[in-house]
Amino acid sequence: MVAITLDEIVKAPKALLHDHLDGGLRPATIVELADAVGHRLPATDPEELGRWFVAAANSGSLERYLETFDHTVAVMQTEEALYRVAAECALDLAADGVVYAEVRYAPEQHLERGLSLEQVVEAVLAGFAAGSVEATREGRPIRVGTLLTAMRHAARSQEIAELAVRYRDNGVVGFDIAGAEAGFPPTRHLDAFEYLQRENFHFTIHAGEAFGLPSIWQAIQWCGADRLGHGVRIVDDITPGQLPALGRLAAYVRDKRIPLELCPSSNVQTGAAPSIAEHPIGLLRDLRFRVTVNTDNRLMSGTSMSREMALLVEAFGYGWAELQWFTINAMKSAFIPFDERLTIINEVIKPAYAKLLG
Ligand SMILES: [Zn+2]
Description:
Elements lengths: L5 H6 L2 E7 L6 H11 L8 H12 L4 H6 L1 H6 L4 H17 L2 E8 L11 H21 L5 E9 L5 H10 L5 E7 L11 H9 L4 E5 L5 H10 L4 E4 L7 E2 L5 E2 L1 H8 L4 E3 L1 H7 L10 H6 L4 E3 L4 H4 L3 H12 L3 H13 L5 H20 L1
Parallel strand pairs: 1-2, 2-3, 3-4, 4-5, 5-6, 6-9, 9-10
Antiparallel strand pairs: 7-8
The protein binds zinc ion.
Family: Belongs to the metallo-dependent hydrolases superfamily. Adenosine and AMP deaminases family. Adenosine deaminase subfamily.
Cofactor: Zn(2+)
Function: Catalyzes the hydrolytic deamination of adenosine and 2-deoxyadenosine.
């Protein structure tokens, strides 16, 4: 079998569920926006700045990884900046062949220069809409849904959950909590999750990345998460061997088809996995968990959706059948309505992969 190339993957339709808006800026845009607001950057040459982000994120600790966001968030404090970053995000994803994306960010981190939460949400939604229209006009249609994130160390989750529900008919399709896991269990935000469940709204929780099974168990069994942001540590509940044995929690996650938003490069950078080749995605796919492939932070990982898939092709020898499976898994697990998911699967994804599979 001839190995699939990165160029071929770029042309194939892809679905992305876990991508951070403040982790995907173009370095050149950061330089321009920082200049406009007088924010000091570690480098002012776009290429050098891009390398700085990847190097800082490569340090191996989640805390240092999160530090890189001080710079991106600092330049995303006006409506114009948020609009531009969101529009460019939609364009960049479309150029990479992503046909459906859920992009997340925390509105509470964009209030430093006096914006209200509503102004932040509306500027980002307008940016996604404008970028999607432009991409479609250029022949690369994309749909972008927004997830609003609350920070797990802060105390605004209820407010952000209500904000997400208020904008549910305007492009906000879900809710998430993010930030350092250790010491901040998801059950701190139980009120917000119970509110979302009463509203029949969708949410995912960053869990099982730096921290293990208790975090995953709480996210699912206490908080009611629809999906797991990462969830990669579910392998701690699997005994390897000729016939791997699943513990109760791993079996539950697989039985219930709970989607795992796996982010290979990001996990290697934060130390959640030793390398792409040793990433648990190989085992989890073999065991047919509901595995999806994601970018997490394209800037910090110097990556793209196509590159993540190319790395998996290289490490595990995957072909188009596996790439289609990841893509359909992601589309099935999206937070938009079922009929709309089905349309993308049947009219966009399946016909394209049918040709690739020959
Ligand atoms: Zn993430």
